[in-house]
């Protein structure tokens, strides 16, 4: 696929950047990875850099980067212990945590010829462990490319390398906003559907009844929210889950998107299990449940991404790198309400499917003033795209925003709920479906995808392991003896140190040994 117009413009802007930090701010799903790899490839080809270091929040992301970069001819070793990649690689992809655990090891081999690409850079923070480790490790790097779709932190901590204006807001060197991405057909528009009604809970000796339009003190406001996301109240969240499932079914059966999926963001593991039980009852299919403490969480996410299952319920598993383009319906039922988390969750529903019409996604959320405020911020970015009928200025009078809902004391008990979906914010419908955009003029065709070096190396090692096993059975020799012979012939201490060329040579040697008649092989021994 050719470069998108905005990616061409970003590369042109980066063409005049020769040192220091460059902040590229682009909407989730817009494709920040591609221009970053293109830049790395051009700088490697011109000799302006000698090494690439991609730093990510999670290990799965390091492998995603290695795959994407390898397809364009830039080979990265994922989860590397330092900046020194194997001979066949152009660099490494590592986590912020790994860098922070041993910044000196990275600093020893970092040089002005190193290009550092910091993915989702808002995970760093001045004076915090990841931010401090990052600064120590890459102080000598000639260029640091900072990537983010949300260049701010919930704790208001400064992000290393980011320039801020007098108002404290980050100043990107190049931006591509969500509104532009929707206009260009690169991202889906998201329609927010708040749910509200009558909520009742016990607070100490009192029974309180209110809706989200009522003004409440901080503690009771929090309890109102907890009541709204409580699964025990049949006419509360379970009703919204039924409504969301009905919308998903319409998309799958009558909307032309047969594998459309839904995501519920739950508050904790117990809450997720309760939500999953309701979804199983209303959809007739057990949803996937992923919790950040589950060792198999990323494997479950990948299976859902590739499958056709209706629902997935997640706890702390919807941040960057969760790329599931078939998600079309969501339910916001987590207690976390920061602007950063809200944007990350919205970002899960904006991904498009190549060569398909770009149609809207739908996100149900409690009618809480904080969440409506965050949704209004997103909607304001889309005003000239969605052409809403209402006056967005009415939302400027929202109460002060709380960032999360604290855990409740034992004297709180949700009693009753009678809620329903309200009119979508602003009452504006989504724009007509558009087809994904054509290539930008002059962008050129994308190079033929390659197999990444780390994937090629992995396959060669598997082939070698299999052939060693075959030869061992044929000659009645232990694998350790055969591996020692191969390594001695190649002049390497262990197989982990073998280059791709050396692995290929060892495989040729194994094939030759397997072709040798048994009697000659025994005599050679």
Task: Describe the structure in brief.
This protein is α/β, with parallel strands linked by helices and 525 residues long. It contains 18 helices and 17 strands. Strands 8, 9, 10, 11, 12, 13, 15 and 16 form an eight-stranded mixed β-sheet that branches. Strands 3-4-2-5-6-1-7 form a seven-stranded parallel β-sheet.
Structural class: alpha/beta
What's the Cα radius of gyration?
Answer: 27 Å
Query: Tell me, what's the shape?
Result: globular
**Which stretches are low in confidence, meaning pLDDT under 50 for 5 or more residues running?**
386-403, 426-439, 441-446
Give the strand tally: 17
How far apart the termini lie comes to 54 Å
Count of helical regions: 18
Output mean pLDDT.
83
The helical percent reads: 25-40%
Strand content: 15-25%
The largest sheet, given as strand count, sense and whether it forms a barrel, is: 8 strands, mixed
How would you explain this protein's 3D organization?
This protein is α/β, with parallel strands linked by helices and 525 residues long. The chain contains 18 helices and 17 strands. Strands 8, 9, 10, 11, 12, 13, 15 and 16 form an eight-stranded mixed sheet that branches. Strands 3-4-2-5-6-1-7 form a seven-stranded parallel sheet. A two-stranded antiparallel sheet has the order 14-17. Strand 8 and strand 9 form a beta hairpin. Helix 1 (5-14) crosses helix 2 (33-46), helix 9 packs across helix 10 and helix 15 (453-475) packs parallel to helix 17 (500-515).
